[in-house]
User: Fold Nuclear transport factor 2 family protein from Alteraurantiacibacter aestuarii.
Amino acid sequence: MVVIRWLALAMAALLLAPQTAAAQDLAVQTAQAEDLTSVREIKRVQAALGHLAIGGRWENIGALFTDDAVLQWNAGEVRGRSAIIAHLRDNQGGGADGMAVGRMNLRLFISPVITLAADGRSATGRWHEVAMMAQAGVSADWAGGTHVVQYRLTDDGWRIAEMRYFPQFAGPYADGWSHDAATLVRAPYHYTPDQAGVVIPQRRASRPQTQAEIDTRASLLLGASRAQNLVAAFGYYLDRGMFDDAAELFAPGASIRVQGQGVWSGPDGARRLLSRFGTPGLDEGEMNDHPLLMPLVNVGADGNSVIVNVVELGMEGQHGGTGYWSAALVDFRLVRAEDGIWRIAAMQRVPLMRSTYQDGWAHPLPASLPVPAGGEPDSAREREVGFDAAPTVVMPSSLSLIAPSAREAVVAPVPGALAMAEAFDGAENVSNAYGYYIDQFAWRDTAAIFARDGWKELSYIGTFIGRDRVLASLIQRYGEGGPNDAMQAIHQKTQPYVTVMDGGQRAMVRTRLMQMNSSASGPGSWIAGIYENQVVKEGGIWRIHGMDLDYVWLADYASGWTGIDPAGSARFGVSDDVIAEFAPDAPLRGETFAPFPRIAPVGFHFANPVSGREPAVRLRWSDGHRGP
Assistant:
């Protein structure tokens, strides 16, 4: 009898084993889906803060914080939600609710590195902030720094528990930004290279969901990422005057509204709208950069619609002529059609500011760009906006990433969606972590974020293949003495476009470099360029496998982009003898020096996500070994 009972128990255990393993697997998958949603909602909270600050919505901003939240900076701190609201109202809003006519308060949070705690209930994020402030006819100012932010998961969702600000530069527009070397405090890193490469911690959910529920959540996350890619692509096409590519992103019945000017319809309307930015392509010396910053993302529960709100910062003009600033709120509504392709169904642009580079945004022009002949809207019953009216700011109806659907949500699951969705955040995390490391000359951490066989272009020198070679080249070039407090190079990377490969095990990611250099002895300078990175998941950790950087322009603050010396960037070049001493493993892939005002080709790793149109220069996955 004992033997029979033992055999029966053993058989029961064998029968239950697959069910137990399946339950454990569902618990792990549930936690992964929850945690990836958390990362996205944390980014949404921070973006909401920036968007609401534009409109002076201080009470709404207060709702983003916990009751006991803390704001800290070098000179002091503010504790508690009510005190934070009052502090922001006084310091950013001039003591008033809303944003007064003639007042501008752009607070741009970019370059996030987000790490979740092991239990998924708290997180830390690192962000750059660029602040552009003005009172029309009176003053205009810059400020910038790094925030280290603590987040907490509450009963109401993710909230900010602590924001510690480390100022990096500031100054009036007329003089440019600078910093005091004696008081400069650099933000400590809250992550190691390995931690930056782990988007989702290893844990099990206490209440596992069904496989169908997990697959639905993962597919929504992946859809949101693919739709956000479309917005990034629109910005990159606009930069280069690729108006046909930009127009092809719109659905046949798309509506495009510019507040103050009218409504354009469909891809043909998009082409007419884009004519305000000039003729297709870029003429010699033409600048048309339009970074799309601080995405506020919301995906419909049916999986077929996504809303992305961004801040567009315009840098335009003709070399040797007049340069212009602009800023606008741009809201995209994207839909997935029956063919499975995401398209832009509606776009609304709310111009906030336009000014000449010389005068700055304290002396604004009409905020909307002039409408050229042939570019008229299909309907024009709008009023002008800008400094003469308070900005219209989208108020998030919820801080949840997933919005309720008016109809019953039926989401077609995408095989492997969770791993592919994670790749978007892994690519962004390690790309941005790299930028923060090189800010502080942390070369060993910089190299550690690369894969074992990863490669990196060293500006003006060549390509180095393998983690050890990457490290050796950085130390040979810059030494290990750490940063000089008299000078800061602030490498801000933003606007990611991610192409996922191998079911989420590797990806290519395009980001925009917005580098602001600050000096303790005078006005700063800046560098703009394009990174095309390759990332891989190596031992469960995201790492950079390849790094290609093409500088587009380098400018001193005083002269701006229209006053660039065509030969100026060549001063950073080195001799053939010096290059030989470094002995790079391969040459640089693109331009050695920033070409502007000459217009040089810029490569893309992706074809048009709607039409499939190939770019003039297509970049493919590389092992770093490239011929001349």
Remarks:
- The CA atoms of residues 142 and 196 lie 29 Å apart.
- The two ends are 81 Å apart (CA to CA).
